[in-house]
Design the sequence.
């Protein structure tokens, strides 16, 4: 029973031979009004189940890439039920109920669609025009002049004929088995800072480029040991790789994450501790300017390319989603480093317009593992056992990043690209 139903008003009522004062009558009247309104609201909440609503479904794109946008009046968490192998994609959205008559023909890779109820959730069911897979999915909160949530599903053609004819959802595959399939494992690019003719900062007995390469190789080994990731290095020898090239190869490979490893330096040898950099607002503006040069920038970002002003808005939204994910990774890394008793700078989460962070569609951070100009940090960075403790904390931070959704954002591929 609701606590309101147990409200005892007997103490407010006059006994035999007693009269209420005008003030007491006013108080009693207000109490009765409040009680009635609260009871009505509670009744409505119980009747509706406090469930949000799927407002509409929108499409954009073409036969190579199609974006599906599900407009919601509250936050939700999505789960893939069917991934497209049988010609259908089904995603459930928790805590939202469908409006009536949500169905129709699709666009691009989607032939037809419908939204059906499933308990306190909705099922977004899409029949595919050709074979496709979910490339990425994420939740956009209200912002940029839009007052509601948007659950975005990006589809990409696979070039394989779909297996049609089944209408029954296949048996659920355990998450562990799904993550074991190579196509489902996130791709992580690890960038060993500097290299070749660029040795980076110098300590008393070592160069930054050697420290970062050893750390990158150790992190690759630690992540691959879990079996949950595909991992690549931007360099695996003492070679020089241009900054723009490091970013480009990660984007070309559709990386889900980019982490650049460095060793800091400063004029005061007493300064020590790790820090994490993410892209600053000024850097974001620079990235937009750089990526919108030339005639084919929409193609490089998988945007529709029909209206430059619309594509510019889509690029801004893509970049905003990427910055949010980068900030999420920075927080989890710093939390794990602190938990492993790694020294941190007092202001350990920083932002800058560094070239290595400029990709608008790949979440990226730059980790300064410590100060090579500090004797204790330099000793730690060159000691295999101490380095292993640091790297294990970094790997645990990456695990948390992919395991824990941020504001409804689930384990998905790199940021947004297409038609929100």
Sequence:
């Amino acid at each position: 029973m609701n606590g309101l139903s147990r409200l005892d008003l007997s103490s407010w009522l006059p006994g035999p031979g007693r009269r209420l004062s005008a003030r007491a009558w006013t108080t009693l009247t207000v109490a009765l009004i409040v009680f009635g309104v609260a009871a009505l609201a509670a009744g409505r909440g119980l009747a509706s189940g406090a469930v949000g609503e799927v407002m509409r479904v929108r499409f954009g794109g073409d036969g190579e890439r199609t974006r599906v946008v599900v407009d919601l009046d509250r936050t939700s968490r999505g789960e893939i039920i069917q991934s497209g192998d049988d010609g259908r994609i089904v995603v459930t959205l928790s805590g939202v109920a469908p409006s009536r008559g949500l169905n129709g023909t699709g666009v691009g890779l989607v032939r037809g669609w419908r939204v059906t109820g499933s308990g306190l959730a909705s099922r977004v069911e899409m029949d595919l025009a050709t074979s496709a897979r979910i490339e990425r999915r994420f939740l956009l909160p209200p912002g940029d002049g839009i007052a509601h949530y948007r659950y975005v599903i990006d589809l990409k053609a696979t070039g394989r004929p779909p297996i049609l004819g089944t209408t029954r959802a296949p048996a659920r595959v355990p998450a562990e088995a799904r993550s074991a399939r190579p196509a489902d494992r996130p791709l992580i690019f690890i960038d060993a800072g500097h290299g070749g003719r660029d040795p980076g900062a110098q300590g008393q007995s070592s160069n930054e480029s050697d420290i970062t390469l050893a750390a990158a190789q150790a992190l690759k080994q630690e992540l691959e040991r879990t079996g949950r990731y595909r991992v690549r290095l931007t360099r695996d020898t003492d070679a020089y790789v241009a900054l723009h090239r490091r970013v480009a190869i990660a984007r070309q490979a559709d990386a889900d994450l980019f982490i650049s490893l460095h060793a800091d330096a400063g004029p005061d040898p007493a300064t020590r501790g790790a820090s994490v950099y993410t892209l600053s607002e000024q850097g974001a503006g620079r990235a937009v300017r750089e990526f919108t040069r030339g005639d084919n920038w929409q193609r490089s970002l998988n945007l529709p390319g029909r209206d430059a002003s619309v594509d510019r808005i889509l690029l801004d939204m893509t970049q905003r989603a990427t910055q949010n994910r980068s900030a999420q990774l920075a927080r989890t890394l710093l939390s794990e480093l602190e938990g492993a008793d790694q020294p941190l700078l007092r202001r350990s989460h920083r932002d800058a317009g560094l070239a290595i962070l400029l990709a608008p569609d790949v979440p990226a951070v730059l980790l300064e593992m410590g100060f090579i100009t500090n004797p204790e940090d330099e000793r730690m960075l060159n000691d295999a056992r101490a380095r292993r403790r640091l790297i294990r904390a970094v790997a645990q931070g990456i695990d948390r990043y992919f395991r824990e959704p941020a504001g409804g954002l689930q384990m998905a591929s790199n940021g947004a690209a297409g038609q929100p």
In short: The two ends are 44 Å apart (CA to CA). The first strand starts at residue 52 and ends at 61.
